[in-house]
Specification:
By secondary structure, this protein is mainly α. The chain contains 20 helices and no strands. Keywords: Membrane, Transmembrane, Transmembrane helix.
Length: 420
């Protein structure tokens, strides 16, 4: 049964469906361009686990795992949070300026990271500068596709979002292979040069097909009186709070438990990200038919269960299998929430504001989730793994409640909470 899957957009979808190309060279070029935008924003976020391990063992070994994880958390937080500000700029037609500034910042941030020696320097360069650049790239990559596709929106979004998985495969391998031979500085610079080269593609040919009409509100109060939206927003908060635990810590876990050699352990993050690519394409293909909530619910349940399964993994084979399955089932949490927000909106006129509100809530979960995991790690790996599983299962519960209140058509307005 469909939950009314619709377009993922940060602004009004222009014109009737017949006016939208829904294919052709330029439409698919936008998908390719968005693929490389994801490759260099979420892809570099998905790579942080390899930096986390290196910093713990070498560059920042005097700092705790929680301190180091704040760098990746701030980077991920800014990627999502500044969508509140880049959304109105996109709506005013500043698409090319956003991806131009974002491209400069992510490359500049990585180049500056290569020069870092102190914790505050890493936080500034990799956490803040690269995070701000990633945020400038992320929202345009999401918002441009609905202007080119009408019936293949979720699939196009899935293909684009798989770029983050490929980035999360390639960048860790590049760092791992080069760092022992040419050092941290040049290994990080090589990543920066790859980012520079791949960002030429979106900057060269991505174009706004039509400027969105009207002004975008940054806040839509009516959303807070609609139970399905509030419940779904709570689900994204808990989901992002727990989902990135394996992406940040899976290598450190395997190396500390010593059930596989360090070389194989370094590939676990790439394996997780490779599986995540399929988790962003396959469910999105079905989401165009079943609706995004119907795909998010079972995949979230499975990812949450796997968080607890992680506790019992104590050998190399089990670790690889865990990474494959967790990568696949967690993949939908990047590609489908924007489409789900559209489904939970009464009209396209409020989608932009609701998207921004959901971004703010999700980014808060990203900001605090992995540092809390790092703090729990002081009490052992089981505490961190249970935190991962509990958060993602809590997300699944809220997604289920959002789905339930939506299909039951019960008017669960929250006005009484604000006017008792």
């Amino acid at each position: 049964m469909s939950d009314g899957s619709s377009s993922c957009s940060v602004a009004k979808t222009p014109g009737p469906p017949s006016d939208i190309p829904n294919g052709g060279f330029m439409a698919w070029y936008q998908v390719l361009g968005s693929f490389f935008l994801f490759f260099n924003c979420w892809g570099i976020i998905n790579t942080f686990g390899v930096f986390q391990t290196y910093y713990e063992q070498d560059l920042l070994k005097s700092r705790s795992a929680m301190d180091i994880s704040w760098v990746g958390s701030v980077q991920a937080f800014l990627l999502v949070f500044i969508g509140v500000f880049t959304g109105p700029l996109f709506d005013q037609g500043y698409f090319r300026q956003l991806i131009g500034v974002g491209s400069f910042l992510v490359v500049f941030g990585m180049m500056m990271t290569s020069l870092c020696h102190e914790y505050w320097e890493v936080m500034l360069a990799q956490g803040i500068v690269t995070g701000l650049g990633s945020g400038c790239l992320f929202l345009p990559s999401v918002a441009i596709l609905p202007t080119y596709f009408s019936t293949k929106k979720a699939l196009a979004q899935g293909f684009a979002a798989s770029g983050s998985s490929l980035g999360g495969v390639i960048y860790p391998i590049v760092f791992h292979k080069l760092q022992p031979h040419i050092g941290f500085r040049w290994a990080t610079r090589v990543i920066g040069f790859i980012m520079l080269a791949t960002l030429v593609i979106p900057n060269a040919g991505m174009r706004m097909r039509i400027k969105p009409s009207g002004r975008r509100k940054m806040f839509e109060a009516g959303a807070l009186r609609e139970a399905p939206f509030v419940l779904f927003a709570a689900g994204t908060f808990f989901g992002f709070m727990g989902m990135y635990m394996p992406f940040f810590y899976v290598q450190s876990y395997a190396m500390e438990k010593n059930f596989m050699n360090d070389n194989l352990a370094f590939y676990l993050l790439s394996i997780t990200n490779a599986a995540s690519a399929f988790g962003r394409i396959v469910p999105n293909f079905f989401a165009d038919r079943t609706g995004p909530l119907n795909m998010l619910l079972p995949t979230s349940i499975m990812a949450g269960i796997l968080g607890f399964v992680w506790i019992s993994v104590h050998n190399a084979g089990g670790m690889i299998v865990f990474c494959i399955f967790y990568g696949f089932f967690s993949g939908t949490f990047v590609s489908l929430p924007p489409t789900a927000v559209v489904t939970l909106s009464p009209s396209l006129s409020v989608v932009g504001a609701r998207m921004g509100m959901n971004f703010v809530i999700a980014s808060t979960g990203l900001l605090i989730g992995t540092p809390i995991g790092g703090l729990l790690l002081d009490h052992g790996w089981v505490a961190l793994q249970a935190w991962c599983g509990a958060c993602v299962l809590m997300a699944a519960l809220f997604i289920f409640l959002a789905r339930l209140t939506k299909i039951s058509r019960v008017s669960y307005h929250l006005r009484s909470f604000y006017n008792p």
